[in-house]
Amino acid sequence: MSHVVKKRKLDKTRQDRLYFDSYSDVTIHEEMIADHVRTNTYRTAILRNSESIRGKVVLDVGAGTGVLSVFCAQAGAKKVYAVEACSIAEQAVRIVRHNNLQDRIEVIRGTVETVDLPEPVEVIVSEWMGYALLHESMLNSVLYARDRWLAPGGLLLPSRAELYIAPVSDPLVEDRLHFWYTVKDQYGVDMSCMSDFARRCIMNSDITVNSVSVEDVLSHPVRFAELDLRSVSTEELRSVKGQFRCESFGSAAVNAFCVYFTVTFPCPDKPQGLVLSTSPFKPETHWKQAVLYLDAPVDVVQDTLVTGEVSMYPSEESARHICIHVDYTIGEQKRQAKTFTIPDWSCEAQQ
Prior knowledge:
The protein has helices spanning about 10-20, 25-35, 35-50, 50-55, 65-75, 90-100, 140-150, 170-185, 195-200, 345-350; strands at about 55-60, 80-85, 105-110, 120-125, 150-155, 160-170, 205-210, 220-230, 240-245, 250-265, 270-275, 290-300, 305-315, 320-330, 335-340. It is an alpha/beta fold and about 350 residues long. Strand 14 (about 320-330) and strand 15 (about 335-340) form a beta hairpin. The longest helix is centred in the middle third of the chain and has 17 residues, at about 170-185.
């Protein structure tokens, strides 16, 4: 017997509980700390800002296991408030004690919106980025902490984020679709009629988190949005949008777009800042790239124009769940539009 599952909006308390529960297991923390690009870039950025951190009070928003708090203490921070809402905070306390830093790092269990710090802070550090940058919406908490606790002229690590898009060709998808035409030769059963069904299943409206190969990127990536964390508001995060325009490198079939992000840390010895990039042209991170599959592939040749607009906004079902809407035109094709979401716990919780 089949039944239709009606989606309902999750109340904020349940959204938050599901979100924080997902960070209570060791696996996700192992994945993040093992991501050398991520962890070492934060460590490098913190140590390079040691002159701004030494003797100062630091707030670590969403501290997790407390590794960034320890880096700040190693950079000379006078006091670090490590705020963490989920039960992993208990392990952070153990790690702080194990490193003999309990006199300088105070782990506070709770959300940054509800805890009460005894003093303003001069530095805020946070690893808040989710898939496609904004999935999970932790940036809202960082901005709340900035407005509530950061002293005027204080330091934000990182301080800027940028979003990029590029058309891509995923040969694995085409191989999977072609598979149904090969069944007859192998087994004597013509299953080519499965191809349309397979296309609808594979090239659906999910945001697929996957690694994109450099050779499958079909143009120079285009930056479509920039967030200055020193000034951006939570209201602006409700719709992050921008236009893009690029030209294809050669003959291929565009069957998806990929979206990725960079964040930049201010560095006294590096005017352009220190960049943590999730680009397919850079070493892989655990964020990989967000892949958005079109309903059907579009053939392009050298210098075919690809234009459009991207809009990112919270889902109606869960404010922590990101939606990406893309309006696009490829070559002489008429303008198309598609909206994508990341399937996650907010969907599972409604069944």
